[in-house]
Amino acid sequence: MQETYDRIWREVASGIRPHLNAEAYQRWFAAIDLVQADECALTLQVPNSIYQFWIESNYLNVVRSAVIAVLGSPREIKFRATDRGLTGSVLDVHAQGTSEPVAPVSPAARAEDLESVISHGMNPLKNFAAFVVGSNNQFAHAAALAVSQSPAKTYNPLFIYGGVGLGKTHLMQAIGQQTVQRRKIQKVTYLSSERFINEFIDAIQQNMLVRFRKRYRQTDVLLIDDIHFLAGKERSQEEFFHTFNTLFDGRKQIVLSSDRPPSEIANLEQRLVSRLESGLTTELQPPDTETRLAILRKKAEAFHLELAEDVLAFLAQRVRTNVRRLEGALLRVVSYQSLSGREVSREALEQLLKDILREEAKKMVTIEQIQKKVAEHFEVGLADITGKRRTANIVYPRQVAMYLSRRHTKASLQQIGETFGGRDHGTVLHACKTLSGRMKREDLVRQTIENLDTQLSR
Ligand code: ADP
Ligand code: MG
User: Fold this and answer.
1) With CB atoms 3.0 to 4.6 Å apart as the test, which of 15, 207, 231, 374 could cross-link to 401 if both were Cys?
2) Do the bridges between strand 41-46 and strand 188-192 make them parallel or antiparallel, or are there none, so unpaired?
3) What separation in Å is there between the alpha carbon of 447 and the centre of ligand 1?
4) Which ligand is nearest to the CA of 162?
5) Rounded distance, CA 116 to CA 92, Å?
6) 104 with 56: CB under 8 angstroms?
7) Cα distance between residue 126 and residue 113, in whole Å
8) Highest mean pLDDT pick, 22-26, 110-114, 231-235, 250-254
9) pLDDT tens digits, 134-143
10) Distance in Å, CA 298 to ligand 2 centroid
11) Mean pLDDT of 421-434
12) How many Å lie between the centroid of ligand 2 and the Cα of residue 11?
């Protein structure tokens, strides 16, 4: 029997290999054995739970597709950890420490669900059960849930925006997979806007536009991730606009995500902006400390990763801006612990997470720093920026500083207004709108902002 298993695994593995770089393949897949296989599931023996954590988080789709290619139908992928100690190979986890581990909730999905999920490129682990709700994301979460419960009946389109690593893709895929399971829904399509653009270009080149259109205009739920990549791509926007209208008029659900609200996406046609704004727009904010701790606990618990409370607290305290980074930090600490066989000390922790902590420090820009930087740039006094004068040479820098404060800090419009000489939130909102408008029309303004942007992110 084991011989058969070995043969199957060799074939599956050779289907996996082309999708990974040689190093990653060697690190994560070389030490795996297939120890059980039946009609429903395959059990992979891994050296320890970190392998499971990492493979489930990053390579599950690849493994599943390879299994389908070899066996002709999907299987649930299970793991058994031998815990025969870690091989040195995991040491190198640093290199990948900030990519995408995710909470594990193994859905007992129906076989056909599984197949459609895979073919749509969604990660089965990114479901609602694995999503931790906090004050930062509760509205987005509630809206996502409502949409997946009654597609096209509540919020359409649903537009989710927020910074990197805050759960946009997770929520989109949760909606996608929840709706796949609904009997009435025929077809769910999830893709990134980059793929939409690439396929569109291919379709034009190969004279296959009809097929392309059919594919995306005949779907019940269309989820397009990272729509901001459409910026400046006029023909793709045009195509997307028509796709949008066809689906919308046909009462089909549309869900979109972006790193910023529609009105702030540069070079997006106004008619498209209004379409995007016509449903519900909801923001994902960075999680607060409690939510970060809850996310860490959930992931640690699910993988039976043992970590001291003060280590979790340290991570939650120090890695604030990005959940993906938080997961990377968690994995790194766990790897270190299992390798060294002891709990990590505070000093070791600082050392181990040096680069992550440095990245975090970068992001913590204060409004005062922004005001100072802007004042320097425009050669006006700091007091002018926060003062009452309304001459043109002051008003513009002030608006720039407000706009940048909105982008680089978590302060509310109200709070920003207060630090600008007690102005109200409407003034700040007006400044932000004026500037995003001008950025679209005036290259110089856009360049100035981009310039200051990079200086502030350093
Ligand atoms: P984005 O698409 O916004 O860049 P992702 O959806 O890819 O971010 O999220 C980054 C990682 O953080 C993913 O592994 C995701 O599962 C995890 N994540 C983000 N928010 C949450 C949350 N609220 N609960 C659990 N995991 C989360
Ligand atoms: Mg994403």
Assistant:
1) 374
2) unpaired
3) 31
4) 1
5) 34
6) yes
7) 14
8) 250-254
9) 999 999 999 9
10) 20
11) 92
12) 31
What residues are in contact with ligand 1 under a 6 Å CB criterion?
100, 102-103, 126, 130-132, 137, 162, 164-170, 295, 323-324, 327
Residue 335 in tokens? 């790897």
Token output for 234: 């006029």
Mean pLDDT of all residues in the chain?
A: 86
| Average pLDDT of the segment spanning 119-134 | 85
Q: Which of 359, 322, 278, 362 lies closest to 162, judged by CA?
A: 322
Cα of 373 to ligand 2 centre, how many Å? Answer: 31
Residue bearing the CA closest to ligand 1, atom 5? 167
Asked if residues 134 and 294 have their Cβ atoms less than 8 Å apart, the reply is yes
Atom of ligand 1 at shortest distance to CA of 131? 24
Shortest-distance Cα residue to atom 6 of ligand 1: 167
Per-residue pLDDT, averaged over 198-225, amounts to 95
98, exposed or middle or buried, with CB in 10 Å at 0-12, 13-18, 19+?
buried
Total residue length of the chain: 458
Quote the CA–CA distance of 300 and 228 in Å, as a whole number: 33
What is the structure's pLDDT at 90? Answer: 34
Interval between CA 339 and ligand 1 midpoint (Å): 27
Ligand 1 atom with the shortest distance to the CA of 102:
14
